[in-house]
Amino acid sequence: MSVSGNTPFSPSSPRNLRVVMAQLDFLVGDIPGNTSRIIEAAKRAYAEQEADIVVFPELCITGYPPEDLLLRPSMDLRVNEALERLQGADLGAAIVVGLPFRKDGRLFNAAVVIEGGEITGRYFKRFPPNYQVFDEKRYFAEGNGAVVVNICGVPIGLTVCEDIWADGPVEDSAAAGARLIINLNASPYDIDKQARRKALLERKSRENQVSIVYANLVGAQDELVFDGGSMVYDHSGSLAVEAPQFTEGLFSVDFLCEHHCQPVSQPLPIEPTLEENVYSALVAGVRDYVNKNGFKSVVLGLSGGIDSAVALAVAVDALGPKRVRAVMMPFRYTSDISLEDAEAQAVAMGVQYDVYSIEPMYESFMTALAEPFEGTAVDTTEQNLQARIRGVMLMSLSNKFGSLVLTTGNKSELAVGYSTLYGDMAGGFDVLKDVPKTLVFRLAWYRNSVSPVIPERVITRPPSAELAPDQKDEDNLPGYDVLDKILNLYVERDFSADAIIAEGFDPADVTRVVRLVDLNEYKRRQAPIGIRITERGFGKDRRYPITSGWKSGN
């Protein structure tokens, strides 16, 4: 345990303290740009909000997660240059920033306090996580002990993200005399994550009789979305302040520090529905991936089906209609309904809309393949050829016009391999990769409640890939209401096949679904990345071997 600072704290002398939570979006690797954002935000918080302390998210100087950039030889040099810039800037307020900090040859995930041009406190994260999407132990050593810093006469304990979920850091800081805990976060979004955070902060603040400032990152980085939702809990475990999710801003809170540091409560934001929350995450994920990677526009195949309809709505809400192009690529099995509905949505959303038949290209391919295919029966090969031609079309438009191809496969389809490698899987970013099919329908109804842009029969008619006459998804799969429940148990909760059957599901359905999930790992490895919204998405969360002798069962 260490205590920094020279100003004594007197519990008999009430003191007002204004803390500003800088809930901002940072770009991984852009250390100079991120440092400039920190300086600008700190100066604005001081000038406009009279901040005493400005709290920034975890690893804000590098962006989160920096991954193997942390192994670059020049990382220490660049971080040190950023620290020197921050110390040399006339900020007015004290700041708490997150950065990688090397000491005695070991790298730590650190929180650093800078006040009056000096580093007055430094804390090393004690519990670097190594589960789900996190692999911090690959890079960071574990810190040891509490750090309590006196700022404006108030003893403040520092913690970083995972530290608040573990036993020890908050408790040790409170025991060392902290009256307020500052927790820097880069906590990624998933469904119900905010509710779990609130339950944790309520318990930690109440049990330790200490107020907690929880400052979280906002924005997206590759498959991860950070939802903000920064909060302040008082010493009794009551939520006093909550910043809106998916919104950048400088959010101030006043504390009256007497026996406790009591935050002044503010009106809380309206609790979003699950559908609104997920939709906001998808919009944030698309917006940041496209903009941070410098794409001018996006293009996607609009089939007249539910998945591409929702993906189009998300893209337009993220980027605006002028940056979105929708392409309908009909074939002989494409229904008139699909053509009508795709056009209706494109017009409603104001995007560029093109129709290019794939019939001539299909006939050319079949002519070229006539000799090797002679004497064989028609099967899924011909269906996959249709999807692959569409993939070539979209990728060609991408190359020519610099547009990112958005794919539209949902989690249910990717789980069981109901997709075509180098066909509908061809692209750069999958909007719905972690969204189960049943939730896709709910998102469509939600988006139409905002403004009616998706034709109703797109949502109500049976889903079909339209790669064969009268084809329906449920010809080859259990109904999505059943399929998604089985997939939730197997993919997200690691139930065995026997355990799923014991839950009351049909053994034949379970056996088939489990086999399809295992069999199609090779496809998912080659799929584009997409936005993670569940506790266990296909990506960093779930890493199964492609080549495996594992047999499903118990």
Concise overview:
InterPro entries: C-N_Hydrolase, C-N_Hydrolase_sf, Gln-dep_NAD_synthase, NAD/GMP_synthase, NAD_synthase, Rossmann-like_a/b/a_fold. The protein is an alpha/beta fold.
Per the CATH scheme, the topology name of the largest domain is Nitrilase/N-carbamoyl-D-aminoacid amidohydrolase
Task: Compute the average pLDDT.
Answer: 93
State the distance separating the first and last CA atoms.
Answer: 48 Å
List the uncertain runs.
1-13
Instruction: Please state the overall shape, judged from the principal axes of the Cα atoms.
Output: elongated
Category by helix and strand content: alpha/beta
Largest sheet: 7 strands, mixed
User: What is the top-level CATH class of the largest domain?
Assistant: Alpha Beta
Helix content: 25-40%
Overview of the structural elements:
The protein has helices spanning 31-49, 75-88, 169-175, 193-208, 274-292, 306-319, 336-349, 359-368, 370-373, 380-401, 411-416, 437-450, 456-460, 480-492, 497-502, 507-519, 521-525, and strands at 2-4, 15-23, 53-55, 94-103, 106-115, 118-124, 147-151, 154-160, 180-185, 211-216, 218-221, 224-227, 231-233, 239-242, 249-257, 261-263, 297-301, 324-328, 352-355, 403-407, 429-430. The protein has 554 residues and is α/β, with parallel strands linked by helices. The chain folds into two domains: 16-267, Carbon-nitrogen hydrolase (Nitrilase/N-carbamoyl-D-aminoacid amidohydrolase), CATH 3.60.110; 276-467, HUPs (Rossmann fold), CATH 3.40.50. The strands form four sheets. Strands 1-7-8-9-10-13-14 form a seven-stranded mixed beta sheet, with helices on one face. Strands 6-5-4-3-2-15-16 form a seven-stranded mixed beta sheet. A hairpin with a 2-residue loop joins strand 5 (106-115) and strand 6 (118-124). The protein is elongated. The two termini are 48 Å apart. Its EC number is 6.3.5.1.
